[in-house]
Design goal:
The protein is mainly α. Helix content is about 85%, strand content about 0%.
């Protein structure tokens, strides 16, 4: 492929920096409020993507290392990038949906909304770092850089951390509407 055609498509770094700027802008103020009235629906539809996507991405990355296959590594990194980057719109939809969720939740569920939001606000940064490092690793893998393997390992470790964080956040989220889950955590001392 001629280098002039490659330059016309734009740099992957411009995409990464645009995403970082978008996230920073949203966190600097009140957020972007993309979803309006559909925020609760969007949050409930897509909140599993960061959970299951990171599990699958880390698993696929482990298999790619086991198989020593560069193409598999890139596919696993794309899966990990999509699932960690998806945490931002899920987070934003959840922020926008908090008031609507309180209207349909019972009293204990409303308390779990606060716990869920607090956990999400604390855990979202792991997803940002994981998405950024995964994008860097994907770039390194595509360009066959010397530091591609360490970057990919770092992306896998951060992906696993994001997965653990998503499970921790989702645990509180599930207890908003599922009273049977609340009883289990109540017995364990929450």
């Amino acid at each position: 492929m001629p280098s002039s055609l490659h330059r016309q498509r734009g740099s992957p770094w411009s995409i990464v920096f645009s995403w970082v700027a978008l996230v920073a802008t949203a966190h600097a103020g009140e957020g972007l409020h993309w979803f309006g009235e559909n925020a609760l629906r969007v949050h409930l539809m897509f909140n599993h993507l960061p959970i299951f996507g990171t599990v699958l991405g880390v698993f696929a990355l482990a298999l790619a290392f086991l198989w020593k296959n560069d193409v598999s590594r890139r596919v696993a990194l794309v899966l990990l990038l999509v699932s960690t980057a998806a945490a931002y719109p899920v987070f934003q939809a959840g922020e926008d949906a908090a008031d609507d969720a309180r209207m349909i939740a019972d009293d204990p569920g409303s308390k779990w909304i606060d716990v869920h939001m607090e956990r999400a606000e604390r855990g979202i940064y792991v997803f940002y770092v994981a998405a950024f490092v995964t994008a860097v690793a994907l770039y390194a893998e595509a360009r066959h850089r010397r530091w591609a393997t360490p970057a990919t390992i770092a992306a896998g470790i951060l992906g696993a951390a994001a997965c653990a964080g998503s499970i921790w956040i989702a645990d509180a989220g599930g207890k908003i509407r599922h009273s049977e889950l609340r009883a289990v955590s109540h017995e364990k001392g929450m």
